[in-house]
Amino acid sequence: MFDELERLASEGAPDIKSLAAAALGQLGWLGTPVDTSDKVAAERVLDIQDVLRSGRPLKHAFEHWAESVIMCLGEQLQQTTAHFLSEDYNARVESCHHGCVPLSVHKLLARMVRARRLTPERGVEFADALMAADRGKDYTAEDFVSGRLGRVGRP
Fold first, then answer.
1. What percent of the chain has pLDDT over 70?
2. Which pLDDT tens digit goes with each residue over 119-132?
3. How far is Cα 27 from Cα 71, in angstroms, rounded to an integer?
4. How far apart (Å, rounded) are the C-alpha atoms in residues 68 and 115?
5. Which member of 23, 81, 86, 131 has the lowest number of beta carbons within 10 Å of its beta carbon?
6. Could you read off the pLDDT of 17-35 as tens digits, one per residue?
7. Contact partners, residue 86, CB within 8 Å, separation at least 6
8. Residues 6 or more apart in contact with residue 141 via CB below 8 angstroms
9. Do 73 and 82 form a contact (C-beta atoms < 8 A)?
């Protein structure tokens, strides 16, 4: 997750750069990033990708690839709790079977608001940016304070 946010903070479109940079500055409370430099078996990644596509043809060869790699890594993480951050609902459901605790960005924002790591108003700003990028629906400050966001990223 940190690698992807670092890439987006340096290479993304202007709005995405600022969102990724802000996210990087807010994730320290989750703990030290887990070293994911160990290699994963490509065959296992392909197996998970096959489950995620749910019998549908892939739009391109790497559709669901990142989620599949992360889940494969999650299977290897026995010494820590792996959090899986994704807006893909099916990927979050499947990640539960691979040793991961799934979170949408919106659920992470709600947790941060409830832990007083982020103001509800700032959470709404991030949610608005995600909605503008067609990555989520509209949420209010009260939604983030209550934590009742409903199903995020529902297919």
1. 83
2. 999 888 888 887 77
3. 20
4. 30
5. 81
6. 887 888 777 777 666 666 6
7. 67, 70, 92, 95, 102, 103, 104, 153
8. 120, 121, 123, 124
9. yes
